[in-house]
Amino acid sequence: MAAVQEYDCIVIGAGVQGSFTAHQLAKNNKNTLLLEQFILPHTRGSSHGQTRIIRKAYEQNIYTHMMEECYKLWAQLETDAGVQLYRQTGLLLMGPQNNHSYKQFKKNLQNNKVPMVLLNNDIFSQQIPYMNLPDGYEALVDLTAGVLYADRAIKAVQEQFQKLGGVIRDKEMVTDIKPGPVVTVSTSACVYRTKSIVITAGPWANKLLTHTGLQLPLQVVKINVCYWKEKVPSLYSLKQGFPCFILTEGEDSNHDIYGLPSNEYPGLVKICYHMGKETDPDQRDKQTDRSDIDILQRFIRRCLPGLVPEPAVVESCMYTVMASNLDL
């Protein structure tokens, strides 16, 4: 085993949270090591895939406030890396008129003076063709929202981190953490010492925390990331101006349904249920529950007649959530 190496900070987990944390530490002149148990890039965690939604529309006001700074940081990373990471599409938000969640989204956007448009039924059918607004539902558009190019963003921030002198070690599983004034981190390849450690390991957080004697009320769920075929090519495409969307919890589901325009796979629209069933992160693919897909099929038959109501592609992602949030 190699000699002990010392760093100001060590970040464990090179997904989006860990990579951006390491980048900020390096920008603040901290000699930083970023550890990852898998070979980069990989599809085992929560940060892979080509696209994510970025928005100011949140149920919790603190997130809407945070997004002001986030948009500036994304723009700065685009400039530093010379790569487009964000494309503005708007976010269509739909929900039952008297639904608490929908009303909270709307209230936060209004209170924070976020540019938005309210859509009545007549305007909805003109502005959002090939999509049906359920009876008794309202709709609005967060005009600031759009698509983040996720894989591209991870690559860009890791490259910027390395340009600042940061070190990335992938395929190094952490095998032990010894707390103290100086923390000792042992991996499958080396031993490191540091005064500060950040654990951004998502589904593996509690496994790592076991070494410290701590545990958090976290549970890991597997999300079926579903792509649905357009009956007519480009009907719901980014090029045609179809927005990202969120349908808040309603009569058919206890959690949100979200979607992004066709882009990653030509002719396929990403639509997912914002929750899943509990899984072991090291045995993710053994969990085969499809109850979320049943919910999505009912939604697509009712609201998106231009899609084939059977997923053409199903990929996997994992969320790490507080234990109380699991009910489908």
TrEMBL record:
InterPro entries: FAD-dep_OxRdtase (IPR006076), FAD/NAD-bd_sf (IPR036188), MTOX (IPR045170)
Catalytic activity entry: sarcosine + O2 + H2O = formaldehyde + glycine + H2O2; L-pipecolate + O2 = L-1-piperideine-6-carboxylate + H2O2 + H(+)
Location of the FAD dependent oxidoreductase domain: 8-314
GO molecular function, one term: flavin adenine dinucleotide binding
EC assignment: 1.5.3.1, 1.5.3.7
Enzyme class: oxidoreductase
UniProt keyword annotations, A-Z: FAD, Flavoprotein, Oxidoreductase
Gene Ontology CC annotations of this record: peroxisome
Origin superkingdom: Eukaryota
Pfam families for the chain: DAO
GO process terms (BP): L-lysine catabolic process to acetyl-CoA via L-pipecolate
Cofactor(s) the record lists: FAD
Function, in words: Metabolizes sarcosine, L-pipecolic acid and L-proline.
Stated family: Belongs to the MSOX/MTOX family.
Name of the protein in question: Peroxisomal sarcosine oxidase
Protein's organism: Betta splendens (Siamese fighting fish)
Taxonomy of the source species: Eukaryota, Metazoa, Chordata, Craniata, Vertebrata
